[in-house]
Specification:
Blueprint lengths: L3 E4 L2 E11 L2 E11 L5 E4 L6 H10 L2 E5 L9 H7 L4 E4 L3 H4 L7 E2 L12 E6 L7 E6 L4 E4 L13 H9 L11 H5 L4 H13 L4 E4 L9 H8 L4
Parallel strand pairs: 4-5, 5-6, 6-7, 10-11
Antiparallel strand pairs: 1-2, 2-3, 3-4, 8-9, 9-10
Length: 228
């Protein structure tokens, strides 16, 4: 559960699988050390004492963000461990989790406290779920949650593997789940968000589910989101 460096001032940690519609999904989080020395937490996974120590070594935890309304399972653990941290919800999550305290809702403009280090854009147009995608400038990394999934070959056996392939989420050709694609009844806002993401010219791609890409991220993203 220790942190792994993914790029300059950017780290990731892999957590246990969680069940989603009966499918075992691997979990992954990111931690960025901001230029003021504080830690920015993206999509927190299950918190352990070892992980808490590793994160604290990066810097004081001041910002915790959830990228979409599905990634909330472990937020309460992190809020209780770092009650002084500011917690930000994606669209619709605050309504879904009224038991949690949120300090703001994420939009297209980054919070001033991390704007010098991280940019962001919201993929809108879906009636099912919107996702906030981030760009970590120091490492030139696009940080994407469920919008791009690239499951490895170890997930491609049996019924599970068949479902992954049918959903277009396998390996280098991974993309967005087909049912979520179909929910984007208005593609214009999503195309604008994709344009912003590609204009950042990311070199690395960090995702929550599947294989991250340490290089060639702009091409991978362009291919994965071609459906938009």
């Amino acid at each position: 559960m220790m942190l792994e460096q993914f790029g300059p001032s950017l780290y990731l940690a892999n957590g246990p699988d969680v069940s989603f519609l009966g499918f075992p999904y691997p979990t992954r989080m990111a931690v960025a050390r901001l230029s003021d020395g504080t830690a920015w937490i993206w999509s927190p996974i299950e918190l352990t004492a070892e992980l808490a120590d590793a994160v604290q070594a990066v810097g004081p935890v001041c910002h915790i963000v959830s990228p979409n309304k599905l990634h909330h399972l472990f937020l309460k653990q992190w809020v209780e461990r770092w009650p002084e941290a500011r917690v930000f919800a994606p669209p619709d999550l605050a309504r879904k989790r009224p038991d949690l305290r949120f300090d703001g809702t994420l939009g297209d403009m980054p919070d001033p406290r991390w704007a010098a280090d991280i940019d962001q854009v919201v993929f809108r147009g879906s009636f099912a779920m919107e996702e906030v995608v981030f760009f970590h400038r120091a490492s030139r990394t696009a940080i994407v949650c469920d919008l791009i999934q690239r499951f490895p070959s170890s997930y491609l056996t049996g019924l599970k593997g068949l479902l992954v392939r049918l959903d277009g989420l396998a390996g280098d050709r991974g993309s967005t789940p087909r049912d979520w694609r179909a929910s984007f009844l208005r593609r214009g806002p999503a195309r604008a968000a994709r344009r912003t993401l590609l204009d950042w010219q990311p070199e690395r791609l960090l995702i929550a589910h599947g294989v991250c890409a340490p290089a060639d991220a702009t091409r991978i993203i362009r291919d994965a989101l071609r459906w938009i």
